[in-house]
Amino acid sequence: MTSPYNPAEIEPAVQAYWEDCGAFVVREEAGREKFYCLSMLPYPSGQLHMGHVRNYTIGDVISRYQRMLGKNVLQPMGWDAFGLPAENAAIERRMPPAKWTYANIDYMKGQLKRLGFAYDWSRELATCTPDYYRWEQWFFNRLLDKGLAYKKMAVVNWDPVEQTVLANEQVENGRGWRSGEVVERREVSQWFIRITEYAEELLRDIDKLEGWPESVKTMQRNWIGRSEGVEFGFEVEGERERLGVYTTRPDTLMGITAIFVAGEHPLAGKVAQSDAKVAAFVAECKNAATAEAELEAMEKKGVPLGITAAHPLSGERIDIWAANFVLMGYGTGAVMAVPAHDQRDWEFAVAHGIEIRPVIAPPGDAQHDFDQSALITKAGTLINSGEFDHLDFARACDAIADHLEKAGLGKRAVKYRLRDWGVSRQRYWGCPIPVMYDGDDKVVQVPDADLPVVLPEEVAFSGVKSPLKERTDFRQTTLPGSGEPALRETDTFDTFVESSWYFHRYCCPGADAMLDARADYWLPVDQYIGGIEHAVLHLLYARFFHKLLRDAGLVKSDEPFTNLLTQGMVLKDGSKMSKSKGNTVDPQSMIERYGADTVRLFMMFASPPDQALEWNDAAVAGAHRFLRRWWQLAARSAGDVAGAKATLAANGWAAAIDDPAALDLRRRVHAMLQKANRDYRKFHYNTVIAACMELLNAMDKFNPAPSADGAATDGAAAGEAMDPQRAAVLREGLVAMTCVMAPITPHIAHRLWRDLDEPGDVIDAAWPQADADALRGEAVELVVQVNGKLRGHIEVAATAGDEDIQTTALAHDKIRKHTDGKVIRKVIVVPGRLVNIVVQDA
RNA sequence: ACCCGGGUGGCGGAAUGGGUAGACGCAAGGGACUUAAAAUCCCUCGAUGGCAACAUCGUGCCGGUUCAAGUCCGGCCCCGGGUACCA
């Protein structure tokens, strides 16, 4: 027990013990409360980075804590193994992506094990294995059956570096999320999944996600982008079809003084055939589309088409313009312009001399200068709108919408910003989309019995173009039934498809189906932990997929993640750790130097999980110092305390202890427990650790290390056995601290638990509760204020009444100094806290 | 522009539903031990004035509510993140 703290010896031994007894392998147990704790699975890039370590430490602390609360805890881990980096690495190293990926998984798994995470490795999965993706292909067949997956030509975001299509979610500021290159627009035949079919439910159910951060919910709401409005048409001279527009402000209908259509709008195209100026503008819009992203604020440009439309209510002739800011992809590609009440329309109108016609009076008596800006309000009442004058916003919208509907000119409509999910990728290293094409290029499903469509792993991979196109053994196949020749699809799925259901599959390892009944035992996930960067992408797709699975009868719940914790970034020198910035710290070197417990402790101590964490080498050493002091205190506090414990327990601890220092220490032990219990629930591990450090400082003073000359600095002389009562109280503190620290630093806790003669393993110890009796002191210290300023402290009996407290406070020397010669107006007593004496000059 | 966060010592960060601002740790300074260094231990550590006791100021800025405001209310400023011609 006197050996120095040596994590290099302790940690592998404890990990081997856990592995040998299958400590973290779990089964479904009917009637026992379950807890499914999930961390976002890593991409096997080669080695863990600090972001992973932080994410997985948080998940592990939560899992181990929940286990000590008595729950049946599932904490799985796996690999998001398909994706582009494997292809890049393959080109660089001239090895197949599969080989590179599996080698990385192997190495990173070793790193995770070295960190001591309590994973059930028997459920491990890698998304690139046919065992996994065959069910994805099977499910795609179900989506095809239901018409929820379909193929269409579409203008797509084309990443010129990655040579592939990107989803809208993967385009950031007009650039590819991974390549950072400006995205081009191309028309390609693509596979889509009908997420828009679920837009309403995905939006509505956000309200159920009480355990999610508000920020993430807001981002998802904005992304889905629901709006309510009216769709209606304008009669256009010389056109049979009406020109449809969509508006969320039908109340401003009488203020329309122009109509704007997109450059790609058919009407603009038609006029362009005979009008060179319009033709030039349309061409400019098309070219600008590519460069659009590069221009921070593009100039608002437009040309008149030289044709007019009839206002649906007044019949007035209104000019139609082509304008570069109207998007063909949203609404109808045409908008009504109300320059008086829309800032963008106002700017365009001012630049092109279009009439600004106010139809809303400013609220109250306010005046508005339409030469300065548009009047944006929903608070005014209508003017210049005939029969609709004097109506407020809500009534005007209703009345005008009713009018349009009755006249058959339009109808109320709900629109979403959300687009269907494009899942085709022109990449090799992904899950093959399980379809084929017959001689007429018609889509034919691969029968379930022929799944999986296996991706060939031994490939010569030299360039960016998918080797699948050249592999005739993969490409050429035959039609089911007839045996006629057919060609396989060579596109693969977006890797977000795999990561949308991996946590379902964790529940059902080895199932000879996509999922089985076990899924509903574990799901929904009780706690999900991951990076904020997935607020929309992954978390929206996963919610969507869960609903698809539900509607296929595979799960029962509506939402997959009950609670979500988004951890903050790991920073170094104020900016995010990244290879490109060259400010990374390798977790491996830290583990080798200090041990896993120190790295985990620092991660949890430096800041709360949802905030950014600043890496600090010196503070890591400080965390290590704490573990060493704890270890040493435990070592010199060993010895048999069973007898004293039994005596104290029999008589009631609080009543039986007569040593005031022991009584005080015991109060501190239980104060720590009270704080730890409260803060564990809030994920405030930094303050839990601070409370343990405080307790350690107190215990260190209670049983100090002998000084060099052999004499103890306080209390009993060195070598002399400690008073049994004191020893028992100290032991209680050490045991409590070991429990509380166990989820954070599980290796040292495991070893000390044994050394402290506690039964079983600390991973299964019952979570300790604070003893109210221990917290109740004989006396309490109160703060005394005069006019809100701190002037002194008094000690009163815990049972003292307000009268006594007041008398004691007023009698205090320092207080009298501040109250003498003054009139006492009021005395406020806050029980257990303070006394405030309000005085006034006489 | 809009929507979320957030501004507290030299630094990371604490502070139950208004109730001792700066817990805990890091860094720094001083001291002990040591031939020396490392390690360890002890002390100091928001600002200003004072030998000191102590006093005054202090949680981005201005104002308000209250016996009492980092915390609540109103108005601004700054930083981080997200979304943006969305009709």
What does this protein structure show overall?
The chain has 28 helices and 32 strands. The strands form 9 sheets. Strands 10, 11, 12, 13, 14, 15 and 16 form a 7-stranded mixed sheet that branches. The protein has 842 residues and is α+β, with helices and mostly antiparallel strands. Strand 21 and strand 22 form a beta hairpin. The chain binds one RNA strand of 87 nucleotides through helix 7, strand 11, strand 15, helix 10 and strand 28.
- Fraction of residues in helix: 25-40%
Helix run count: 28
Oligomeric state, counting identical vs distinct chains: single chain
- How much is the radius of gyration in Å? 35 Å
Poorly predicted segments: 289-297, 708-719
Provide mean pLDDT, rounded. Answer: 89
Report the end-to-end length measured between terminal Cα atoms: 69 Å
Query: Which outline best applies?
Result: flat
Largest sheet: 7 strands, mixed
Beta-strand portion reads: 15-25%
Q: What would you call the structural class? A: alpha+beta
List the helices and strands and how they pair.
Layout lengths: L6 H14 L13 E6 L10 H19 L3 E3 L3 E2 L4 H10 L3 H18 L10 E2 L3 H17 L2 E11 L4 E3 L4 E2 L2 E2 L7 E10 L5 H6 L9 H11 L2 E10 L6 E5 L10 E4 L4 H7 L3 H16 L10 E9 L6 E7 L10 E4 L5 H10 L40 H14 L3 E6 L5 E2 L1 E2 L9 E3 L5 E3 L26 H4 E3 L6 E4 L3 E2 L1 H4 L3 H4 L12 H5 L2 E7 L5 H15 L9 E7 L2 E3 L2 E2 L10 H8 L1 H11 L6 E2 L2 H20 L5 H10 L1 H4 L3 H22 L3 H18 L21 H18 L4 H10 L16 H4 L3 E8 L2 E9 L4 H10 L1 H7 L2 E9 L3 E8 L1
Parallel strand pairs: 1-2, 1-24, 3-4, 12-14, 24-25, 26-28, 29-32
Antiparallel strand pairs: 5-6, 5-9, 7-8, 9-17, 10-11, 10-13, 10-16, 12-15, 13-14, 18-23, 19-20, 19-22, 21-22, 26-27, 29-30, 31-32
Helix pairs in contact: 1-25, 3-4, 8-9, 17-18, 18-19, 18-23, 19-23, 20-24, 22-23, 22-24, 23-24, 24-25
This protein binds one RNA strand of 87 nucleotides through helix 7, strand 11, strand 15, helix 10 and strand 28.
